[in-house]
Write a structure and sequence with these properties.
Largest sheet: 9 strands, antiparallel
Shape: elongated
Radius of gyration: 27 Å
Order of helices and strands: EEEHEEEEEE
Number of strands: 9
Structural class: mainly beta
Number of helices: 1
Helix content: under 10%
């Protein structure tokens, strides 16, 4: 009575004989991919990268917003967003039945917002405030994979891997007051960090005792580190009287 799905994403091997690549630029992102042989017929690489251009659009957009904002509210706001993905794979063939490959993936999203309050038009005390909010989250994956046909009816697939997921939220508030008698500045910097680390070794075997039978078996060991929340707070105060 339930539905489920499995998404299996695998970076393909690079071309072992010829070099090729693609490059494209769209309205909000650009892509680049290159593949080819390192040692012809034996070792190949495949590399790809993708990045958004939204931060190049949001910066001038908020500049126009600040230019034509309500003169009663003199806050200046700037916001930017960017996403970057990197994929890479190197494959070496010892033989047609014995290959070793190394794969890496890095993906990161980042959002940053900055708001400055400069109420000199309506506050004679000379108070000024600034708030900066930063969010960053992403994943890093690296794996070393060995595929080997032990015999005509038994094959193995051994994978050593590390997966890292991190999310960071940072908030910094700065409040300043300057007049003829006092100069005061207070900064509060709060950081919230959460992360998950997985390091594991997985070995899968496929055995064909007959043409009509197959048996799968294997083992896996994982070292799992889970840190749901780590908070760091800092406060700086300076004053001149």
């Amino acid at each position: 009575g339930r539905m489920s799905s499995v998404v299996d994403v695998t970076t393909r091997d690079g071309d072992f004989n010829d070099y090729s690549g693609t490059f494209s630029i769209g309205l909000i992102e650009g892509r680049f991919q290159m593949e080819g042989p390192i040692v012809k017929g034996k070792t190949s690489f495949n590399f790809g990268m993708r990045r958004t251009w939204l931060d190049l659009l949001t910066i001038p957009g908020f500049a126009l917003y600040n230019m034509f904002r309500d003169p009663v509210n003199s806050d200046h706001t700037v916001m930017r967003y960017a996403m970057t993905d990197l994929n890479g794979k190197i494959t070496h063939k010892f033989s047609e039945t014995n290959t070793l490959s190394f794969s890496v993936f890095v993906g990161q999203d980042a959002v940053r917002s900055n708001s400055i309050s400069d109420p000199t038009d309506w506050d004679t005390d000379g108070n000024e405030g600034e708030m900066e909010l930063g969010l960053r989250w992403g994943n890093i994956l690296a794996s070393l994979r060995w595929k080997y046909n032990i015999s005509d009816n038994l094959s193995s697939d051994v994978n050593l891997y590390h997966v890292q997921s991190r999310a960071r939220v940072g908030l910094m508030n700065t409040w300043k007051r300057t007049d003829e008698s006092i100069s005061y500045e207070e900064t509060n910097n709060d950081i919230n960090l959460s992360m998950i680390y997985d390091t594991g070794l997985k070995a899968d075997f496929l055995w064909h005792p007959t043409d009509n039978q197959h048996i799968r078996f294997g083992t896996e060991a994982i070292w799992h580190v889970f840190a749901p929340q780590r908070i760091s707070e800092r406060k700086y105060v300076t004053s001149d009287t």
